[in-house]
């Protein structure tokens, strides 16, 4: 979630903490869908370490 919360979203709030919880849930779902899509395309890779998913550029796909 750190990657999603660090992005700039088109919402009328100055910080993540000010975004209403329901809107945060939608943003997180959309962000995860984008990450899943990029993994499926081979643009990025996902590594799971316990409860943490790490994402990085897929350098073998260049």
Question: Describe it for me?
Answer:
42% of the residues lie in helices and 19% in strands. It has one domain. It has a two-stranded antiparallel sheet. It is α+β, with helices and mostly antiparallel strands. The chain is built from two helices and two strands, in the order H-H-E-E. The mean pLDDT is 91. A hairpin with a 2-residue loop joins strand 1 and strand 2. The radius of gyration is 13 Å and the shape is elongated.
Give the secondary structure arrangement, pairings included:
Layout: H1 2-6, H2 21-41, E1 44-49, E2 52-57
Antiparallel strand pairs: 1-2
Gyration radius, to the nearest Å? 13 Å
Percent helix range: 40-55%
- Tell me the number of strands: 2
* Poorly predicted parts: none
What does the main sheet amount to?
Answer: 2 strands, antiparallel
* Structure annotation, total helices: 2
Shape: elongated
Structural class, please? alpha+beta
Mean pLDDT comes to: 91
Q: What is the end-to-end distance? A: 27 Å
Spatial arrangement of strands, main beta sheet: 1-2
Residue fraction in strands:
15-25%
List the domain count as a whole number: 1
The SSE string, one letter per element, is HHEE
């Amino acid at each position: 979630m750190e990657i999603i919360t660090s992005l700039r979203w088109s919402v009328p709030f100055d910080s993540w903490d000010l975004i209403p919880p329901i809107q945060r849930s939608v943003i997180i779902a959309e962000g995860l869908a984008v990450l899943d899509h990029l993994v499926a395309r081979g643009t990025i890779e996902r590594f799971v370490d316990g409860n943490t998913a790490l994402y990085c550029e897929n350098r073998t796909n260049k």
